[in-house]
Specification:
The structure is a homodimer of 274-residue chains. Chain A is built from nine helices and twelve strands. In chain A, the strands form two sheets. In chain A, strands 1, 2, 3, 4, 5, 6, 7 and 12 form an eight-stranded mixed sheet that branches. In chain A, strands 9-10-8-11 form a four-stranded antiparallel sheet.
Chain lengths: 274, 274
């Protein structure tokens, strides 16, 4: 037993559906997102009592607690991230997945990669804090979730692309409020967006489908709408991160529109031990 | 249209089955391997005639030709690698997959990641030069191919592990000779190896299953057997790369046994554009 560290990319969702199921590992969402170089680094070491810290502060993250309980782990979890919380970057899912990978290594639990992803995905679904971030973070790149659920159930393709990504986080939105409400229209819009990107699996197709989804699912806040419009006006490509008061843009889109944006990039690989 | 570059990790197979099928994208193998940081970098640019160079030399690689024909691509392909050829590192598959990713980007062909992986996998199977390298290289890490074929058909898990890998290549073996011969015993041995690693998805379990497979499938050459024994004797962990006259070892296994080995590491991510 020793210390172990995992890195999990952030993940912004461009469009999605809600796919409930009895079994949380079968439940989830279809949709598309970007895995980001800005992510969460999670270090786990055996300890006398269970503690979870995020950027130095004690925190309770339901999905992480569920992962640790399932692994019967009395460990100290230390997560570090530059990403803002509650803003649509999948920080809770990333911390849960990182905790699963690092705890498995630190305590030699002997689970496979897919088993750990399924564990973190199910924990996140039960916690109500995300439906597709964990499996997108496990894949990396620009994942297109064609079938929902954990690794045994889902089917993931991807847009083959790399490049700089900028983001601007203006505040929090509550994922749980949206995904536990009436999701019929949202899911119909998500299905249309996914069909469009499957027909045209390029970054251009991805961004256009994301913007149309945000409009059709009626999720655009006035603040986000105005920033996205500024980026388009300046000749760039941007949309809203689902679900946060957050705009993400390709290349130098936000900077060109005069915003002081954070800079990262599409992260080609998935979550991994360090 | 512009120049594009892709990186594809090398891939050593520890154990495998042969799974023929009418459709080459459905055919392939089950088994386990290591994706390696030493890989193939493939650059593609539009050109007046089709040329393929590997480390500066003109070369004809059947799987690459098939990929370029399927993409209707008149391009110059430049592949660079430190890996030895014909030694079990999947260089032909890596070059085919890199050519698919880079050509799709350079000529804006608009295919998805899975479509490109399926294309390269099918080309490699038809060429008879590999059954599972391409899909292992697309996944990265320590892929366990639980179901054969391209992305639409296969199911891949992985051993969650990182670390240094050493290798010693002593000569070529012809993959085509083995995989087009009588593969019944080989496949039975491969199934047993895979079951063992599924029960114990750790590097320790992986290496033990690989050694047992090499013995049971009667693929160990005297030279490889002797080097593997030396590594075990020195307290390390090694096995044979399928299919090459090649030994791979974890950590400093070959060095500790007194061999002048090449050093690389488990590559966590899969093939990607640069």
């Amino acid at each position: 037993m020793t210390e172990a560290t995992a890195f999990v990319p952030g993940h912004v969702t461009g469009f999605f559906t809600a796919e409930p199921a009895e079994d949380p590992i079968e439940a989830g969402s279809r949709g598309g997102g970007l895995a980001l170089g800005d992510g969460v680094t999670v270090t786990v070491r055996p300890a006398d009592e269970r503690t979870v810290r995020l950027n130095g502060e004690a925190i309770e993250i339901d999905a992480v607690e569920r992962v640790l309980s399932a692994l019967d782990a009395t460990v100290a979890v230390r997560a570090e991230t530059d990403l803002p919380l509650g803003s649509g970057f999948g920080v809770s899912g990333a911390t849960a997945l990182g905790a699963a990978l690092a705890t498995n290594a630190a305590l030699e639990r002997g689970l496979s990669e897919n088993e750990l992803v399924a564990l973190a995905h199910g924990a996140e679904v039960r916690a109500g804090t995300g439906l597709g971030d964990v499996v997108g973070q496990a894949r990396g790149g620009v994942p297109l979730r064609l079938e929902p659920g954990g690794p045994e159930y889902n089917y993931i393709d991807a847009v083959p692309a790399r490049g700089r990504v900028e983001y601007l986080a203006r505040g929090e939105l509550d994922t749980e409020d949206v995904i536990t409400g009436d999701t019929e229209e949202l899911t119909a819009a998500g299905e249309r967006a996914l069909s469009r990107v499957v027909r045209e699996p390029t970054m251009d197709g991805f961004m256009r489908a994301s913007r149309r989804f945000a409009r059709e699912a009626d999720l655009l806040t006035p603040e986000v709408r105005s920033v996205v419009e500024d980026v388009i006006e300046a000749g760039g490509d941007a949309s809203m991160a689902m679900l946060g008061e957050t705009v993400f843009a390709l290349g130098t889109g936000l900077t060109d529109a005069g915003y002081d944006a954070a800079v990262t990039e599409i992260h080609p690989g998935g979550a991994t031990l360090e």
